[in-house]
Amino acid sequence: QVQLVESGGGLVQAGGSLRLSCAASGGTFNSYDAGWFRQAPGKEREFVAISGSGGSTSYGDSVKGRFTISRDTAKKTVYLQMNNLKPEDTAVYYCAARRNIITPWNYWGQGTQVTVSS
Q1: Is the pLDDT of residue 1 over 90?
Q2: How many C-beta neighbours within 10 Å does residue 38 have?
Q3: Residue 34 forms beta bridges with which residues?
Q4: Which residue, 17, 114, 102, is CA-closest to 52?
Q5: More reliable by pLDDT, 27 or 35
Q6: E runs forming strands in the chain
Q7: 13: which residues sit within 8 A by CB, 6+ positions away?
Q8: CA 37, 76, 71, 50 torsion-angle sign
Q9: What SS3 state is found at 114?
């Protein structure tokens, strides 16, 4: 079992930056894919970014060029650096993990709120 705990959310003005962290415990997290998702009020959960266990990364169209996902295997932590934030980035951000590309995102954190003011 993998347990995930997010941190780093908060209130920021448009154009600002935040870095989210997702600390993992249990399981063999470094061999898992790790991802970030977000959900705004009244909207469906949206894919933000993924860091594959092999080092590949991918981003949702709405955050490309502004957000960067990275992972520190020694700390078993995944980061989401968010730059040039926009009010539409306001959401609860969730960290997730899955064993591989053919398995579901079985492991989720509790979420961290990001609010971007205009």
Answers
A1: no
A2: 24
A3: 51, 97
A4: 102
A5: 35
A6: 3-7, 10-13, 18-25, 33-39, 46-51, 57-59, 67-72, 77-82, 91-98, 107-108, 112-117
A7: 116, 117
A8: negative
A9: strand
Tell me which residue of 46, 45, 66, 71 sits closest to 56, measured CA to CA. 71
Length of the chain equals 118
Per residue in 30-81, pLDDT (tens digit) is 899 999 999 999 999 999 999 999 889 999 999 999 999 999 999 999 999 9
Residue listed under structure tokens 């989210």: 20
Place of tokens 């520190």: 72
Give the pair of three-digit tokens for residue 66.
Answer: 């502004």
